[in-house]
Amino acid sequence: MAYNLKKEGEYNYIEAGEGTPIIVLHGLMGGLSNFDAVIDYFSNNGYKIIIPELPVYTMSLLKTNVKSFSKYLHEFIAFKGLKNVILLGNSLGGHIGLYHTKLYSKNIKALVITGSSGLYESAMGGGYTKRSDYEVIKKKAQEVFYDPDVATKEIVDEVYATVNDRNKLIKTLAIAKSAIRHNMAKDLPKMHTPTCIIWGKNDIVTPPNVADEFHELLPDSDLFWIDKCGHAAMMEHPDEFNSILHKWLLDRNL
């Protein structure tokens, strides 16, 4: 189902359902539509799903970093008047969720991360020397998934357009450097927010050992694996992802 983008103040976002708020945080090149299955499922199961468009390419270069995006999220939550929020983030979105929770833990009830940066990254901002070669970019987009067919022409076209936009490429590289700079290894042991870690066993962007390390460092975390799955579990195995997450939320009374 296609959802309409709401425009309110300086914010653009999708909103569906009623109940406990789950704010979904997209990745660097992840469109809001990547979470269609999450919206469909949880908006019909007692949760309000909100997906803000993060300003990854619209902030000034100096503010194009994980910390600024976390502050933006904090301001968005205040703007919406939300309390006891669950944050769900993929890739860069997971990192923003973690960093936001480090800075503003009071209003965050739980965290969900999948293929998150914050400890390690191998592909965010690298390998764009041949960005004008469509087939090279197509292969790079396909590598994100266990099943390369998940990388539809629409997805490949969007990645190709992004990396061939000079302004967006510069900001992509700035975000990649910021992700490394804002490594969270020392912060995670102090973060006691309940955290659900859902990871693809075949993720080559943030490999399985990254999930193990997140689980080891976060004091109150549960780790779940999805087989034959790459970097975007909610896209590649949406039913299994939703089932794991819903059971975890119920078990935790969230």
Explain what you see.
Helix content is 39%, strand content 18%. α3 (92-103) links the parallel β5 (85-90) and β6 (108-114). Strands 1-2-4-3-5-6-7-8 form an 8-stranded mixed β-sheet, sandwiched between helices. α2 (66-80) packs across α3 and α4 crosses α5 (153-163). The chain has one domain (6-251): Rossmann fold (3-Layer(aba) Sandwich). The longest helix is centred in the C-terminal third of the chain and has 16 residues, at 166-181. It starts with 5 loop residues before the first strand and ends with a helix. With 254 residues, the protein is α/β, with parallel strands linked by helices.
Strand order of the largest sheet: 1-2-4-3-5-6-7-8
Question: How far do the termini sit from each other?
Answer: 26 Å
- Helix/strand-derived category reads alpha/beta
Q: Number of helix segments?
A: 9
Report the CATH topology name. Answer: Rossmann fold
Query: Which bin fits the share of residues in helices?
Result: 25-40%
Radius of gyration: 17 Å
Q: Tell me about the biggest sheet?
A: 8 strands, mixed
Low-pLDDT segments: none
Which word captures the global form? Answer: globular
CATH architecture: 3-Layer(aba) Sandwich
The H/E string reads: EEEHEHEHEHHHEHEHH
What is the arithmetic mean of pLDDT? 92
Number of domains: 1
What is the CATH class? Alpha Beta
Instruction: Please identify which CATH superfamily we are dealing with.
Output: Alpha/Beta hydrolase fold, catalytic domain
